[in-house]
Amino acid sequence: MKKILVTGSNGFIGMAAVKRLQAEGFDVEGLDLAQGDITDPSCFDRYNLKRYFHVIHLAGKTFVPDSWKDPASFYRINLTGTINVLEFCRRTGTGLTYISSYLYGPPEYLPVDENHPVKAYNPYSHSKLLADNTCQFYAMNFKLRISVLRPFNAYGPGQPAHFIIPEIIQMVNDPSVKEVQVMDLRPKRDYIYIDDLVDAIFRTIEGEPGIYNVGSGQSVSVEDLIKTVMNLSGIIKPYKAKGTERQNEIFDLYAGIDRIKKTLQWQPGTTFEEGLRKCINFLR
3-152+194-217+254-269: CATH homologous superfamily? Predict the structure, then answer.
């Protein structure tokens, strides 16, 4: 039985990934804070003598507003922690799948493919960009099998409540909330359901290494998101924007996914309505 090491195994993506990998017959071992701190190189000592077929690196800090308050912790965990994972893979010759993030900034063209220029626009994205680039350097110079996935807006049951989809579902379904209020109704994003992202992760384990966008290939506005949640919930409420436009707001973006479709034979299998329905049922 092939052994897989998953960092961040208790996180939103991690728990879904572990469940899928176990269902596929892999022997999965998790690495979270209970087992060790990835920013400490010695935390990997206990794993050095084990023979892993692959490492899936999901551990990291993700909430953008917090990155402005405490940028050092984002660099320490997202960059230094990733370097320690890469060093473990270099020592043991183990392949790696690294979950990066949206790194392209305001799109110069749509859809945004993997050849689009990358740009950091907050401490979180800068820490991920540096880690993403370091993964590519290790792959090239140490001949490691490394795949970098760049997911767009992942969502699904169990996502933390401060993300927009669970937040809107909560507002729509909470009887005490009389009006749904969001910062801006206009921005459009590419939402990818958690099971589809996990399927992309699974395909990198033995698939061709590379850099791959993971998205649905289409965008949905905040307003359409609210309307869809209301229709699926059977609850209609007034809604409005607070009139607070975020600095450097991106009003439309969606992923170019031709590379992952062609190379890994992956494509999203969950429609946006299907995914939202599962989220609504979970939160209820």
Answer: NAD(P)-binding Rossmann-like Domain (3.40.50.720)
